Amino acid sequence: MKQLFFKIFLWFWLGMVVMIIALVTAAALTRSRSAEDQRWIQKYELPLQLRARHEVDLVEHHGTSAAAQYIGSLEQQDPIKNFMLDDTGHEVLGRQIPVDVLGLVPRVDRTQQAIPLFFSRDRVMAEKIAGSSGRQYRFFMKFPPRPFFPHSLVLFFFEDVGSAGILRLIALLAIAGLFCFWLTRHITGPIGKLRWAAREIANQHLGARVDNEVTGRHDELADLGRDFNRMAERIGALVGAQRDLLADVSHELRSPLTRLNLALGLARQHANPESLEHLDRMERETERLNNLIGQLLSLARIESGVDLQQSKPFELGALVQEVASDGDYEARSRNCRVKFDQGFDCYVEGAREMLRGALENVVRNAVRHTDDNSAVEIAIERRRNGNGCYAIVKVRDHGSGVPETELADLFVPFHRISDGIRRDPSGAGLGLAIANRTFRLHGGSVGAANATDGGLIVTLHLPAFETDPGAEIPAK
User: Fold this and answer.
1) Distance between CA 203 and CA 195 in Å, rounded?
2) What is the largest CA-CA distance in the chain?
């Protein structure tokens, strides 16, 4: 979201900067040239008259060679070219006259008074002057072309605009930046709220909605927010109906299963030896169905949040030790072990039995999938971050691991590994889903990753206390 914000902000602000620069450039092309022409006239008006008079005197009293020597010395110091025409229209020194200067001769001839003439477009100054002999001369000063545009722009900034004008321009750019910042926030703010609501729904918080700050706008983003809320309501209703259906069906199946178990017990009393094998198979399948229904009811109970009413602080290490002992007992049948070494006390708050059941699901899953003669390792860590203190429980097996593409769906209800790895024919894909929802309901999270040397590591996060919440605070 920050990338989108800064992209929109930069594009808006750069657009404003380009527009301001374009306006300043246009002003530089007009005002700077006008001001430069004024500076040009003021600077060379008097030298024009002095040069013209001096060169005419040199020509009439000392000859053209003296005038040529004088003009040559001037042109070595200054790139300005001097031309002087006599009353017959010939250049006094016999030099080639540029075409643009020749084009100005008729305009100079039409001038009756001996006053300086300025032709800024051609960069030429001219004056009619009469010599002491009574002859009329037309004197021209041809200047180099105008400075290239960047130089003109620099002159505009530092000579015409000045430091005060530059400060105003910087203030204008700053105001444009603030306006672009506000406009960007106005556009991207609703997008951020939509993103937050979408993330909450993805994390199974189906009550998340876009607030009135978005839906109350009068634009397409408000329509998008209202459509999003309708979608979220529909999803919540569908998921709620599905949960209710699973809970109701699971509850209703308990009575037939109870009667079926009773019937199986009566059948065993009157069965012949040949029928006992079939009755044993029926009993195993009934037990599996009973476990599945129990897990479905546990999932429905977790979703309802009823058990959270029993939430209270407790020491997490003791709970993990109990689960590890039970898991170790079950693992002995495969010559496996469950190892847990608690190095410190770690206190959390929650429904202890609910968390115990969730942790048992994770440990039993690890015991089922670890290799024979290996160990399931459990460890507790405590970390602090900007949001507080967290307890981290890691459960690692030494099995075949999980395909990377399946890790994200490992905690989805009824999900089974597609390629047969870690597939448990007796499982229904609910154990890890129950653990995930239990820890999320307690403000934590669950994740999984493959170990580099084989096996799966399931990581359980849970908010924790930094000290024993039941300890008495000593009096000062």
Assistant:
1) 12
2) 157
Q: Which residues pair with 139 in a beta bridge?
A: 84, 127
- Residue 405 shares a structural domain with residue 448: yes
Is the residue at 206 inside a domain?
A: no
Same domain, 281 and 352: no
The neighbour count for residue 393, using CB atoms within 10 Å, is 28
CATH number at residue 424: 3.30.565.10
Over range 107-133, report the average pLDDT: 80
Question: DSSP 3-state assignment of 129?
Answer: strand
- Are 317 and 365 in a shared domain? yes
Q: How many whole angstroms separate alpha carbon 359 and alpha carbon 393?
A: 9
Count the helix, strand and coil residues of the chain and give each as a percent rounded to the nearest 5: 60, 15, 25
Q: Do both 55 and 22 map to the same domain?
A: yes
pLDDT in tens, 117-127: 878 777 888 88
Q: Could you tell me if 277 and 239 lie in one domain?
A: yes
How many domains, the chain?
Answer: 3
Tell me the pLDDT band of 396, cut-offs 50, 70 and 90. very high
Q: Give the sign of the dihedral formed by CA 85, CA 90, CA 92, CA 95.
A: positive
Give 156 or 98, the one with higher predicted confidence: 98
* Cα 290 → chain centroid: 49
Q: Are 395 and 323 in contact (CB under 8 A)?
A: no
Angstrom CA distances, 305 to 138, 194, 200, 242, 300, stand at 105, 27, 18, 17, 9
Q: Is residue 161 situated within a structural domain?
A: no
pLDDT in tens, 260-279: 778 878 787 777 777 777 77
